[in-house]
Q: What sequence folds into this?
């Protein structure tokens, strides 16, 4: 190895050491800071997939705007879906600070190279599903995102602070729908329980595989991208949600669910990891429908992007 290569290697080792010290000290990493390529790639993967999840998540809920049972319910649902679109934009912008373009991220989504959350590959069959999505899905997202507020990458952490404020409203409105239905007719109570039965387990899957099965956990903790593990956050979600279900009379569809006095947590049954792997690898009930719809809307909306770019270019040339 020649002398220049030797010096370069020593410099990189020094930069990596300084980076590790900085992350361990709790300092935020900013876009212009030196960072290991593996750190950048890890974040591009996670943040872009997070953004895709926010935008794809608008589909199951969007299907119910015209069928909301009241003007108030419609207004709340519209506000929530608009928030999700905004969350997607914050997160795409955070990912762009790492050097990937919006077009590249969208191409990765459309080609299947990028994932989005498993949960949005299930159909929203009844109005109670909109309650279950708000309460369980956004409830799970809050547990995950509150932890991510302390992620080491500055733009991601700041996006999380902003998003978490809005997620709390999403979770609350979903819980209100479920509580309202559980005070309703037998048919409404049955509809709410049916939604609970279909959304409970996929919501637990949102937190990812067991820590022992997580290929990204090592770097995620080494570089403080994650502050809590998949299993820790899943357990936190279960412990708080079981009590909320009991208050409104919903049953958790897990015969093995049992309070454990020793650990101070709920023991629960095993997740169907075959279902999880199928769904995140494109074989869920709605995967094709979700990505086909995104592709069509992206194509239909191309004229808006072209017009906005032309306007921007004209303005830029004038100045
Ligand atoms: N859905 C789809 N893929 C998942 C997944 C899930 N629920 N959980 C894990 N995976 C994938 C990972 O992406 C990874 O695959 P990849 O290498 O192709 O990216 C593989 O399974 C291994 O999982 P790991 O746990 O090792 O991966 P991570 O360390 O990235 O952890 C995660 C997974 C916990 C989802 C993490 O990426 C994360 O915290 N992401 C940010 C939060 C997020 O994306 N939430 C999605 C929901 S957003 C939402 O609900 C919007 C709300 O407003 C409705």
A:
């Amino acid at each position: 190895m020649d002398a220049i290569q030797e010096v370069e290697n020593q410099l990189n080792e020094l930069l990596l050491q300084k980076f590790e010290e900085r992350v361990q000290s709790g300092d935020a990493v900013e876009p212009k800071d030196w960072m290991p390529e593996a750190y950048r790639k890890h974040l591009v993967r996670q943040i872009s997939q997070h953004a895709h999840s926010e935008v794809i998540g608008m589909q199951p809920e969007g299907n119910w705007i015209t069928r909301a049972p009241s003007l108030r319910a419609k207004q709340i649902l519209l506000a929530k879906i608009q928030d999700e679109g905004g969350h997607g934009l914050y997160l795409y912008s955070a990912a762009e600070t790492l050097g990937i373009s919006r077009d590249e991220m969208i191409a990765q989504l459309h080609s299947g190279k990028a994932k989005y959350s498993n949960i949005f590959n299930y159909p929203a069959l009844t109005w109670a599903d909109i309650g279950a999505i708000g309460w369980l899905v956004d409830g799970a997202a809050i547990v995950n995102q509150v932890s991510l507020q302390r992620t080491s990458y500055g733009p991601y952490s700041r996006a999380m602070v902003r998003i978490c404020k809005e997620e709390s409203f999403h979770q609350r409105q979903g819980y209100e729908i479920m509580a309202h239905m559980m005070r309703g007719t037998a048919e409404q109570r049955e509809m709410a329980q049916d939604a609970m039965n279909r959304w409970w387990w996929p919501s637990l899957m949102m937190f990812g595989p067991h820590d022992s099965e997580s290929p990204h956990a090592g770097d995620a903790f080494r570089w403080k991208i994650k502050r809590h593990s998949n299993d820790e956050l899943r357990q936190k979600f279960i412990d708080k949600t079981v009590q909320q279900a009991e208050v409104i009379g919903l049953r958790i569809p897990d015969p093995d669910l049992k309070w454990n006095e020793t650990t101070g947590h709920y023991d629960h049954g095993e997740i169907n990891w075959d279902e999880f792997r199928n769904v995140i690898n494109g074989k869920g009930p709605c995967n094709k429908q979700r990505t086909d719809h995104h592709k069509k809307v992206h194509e239909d909306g191309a004229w808006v992007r072209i017009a906005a770019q032309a306007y921007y270019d004209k303005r830029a040339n004038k100045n």
User: Anything to note?
Assistant: The radius of gyration is 22 Å.
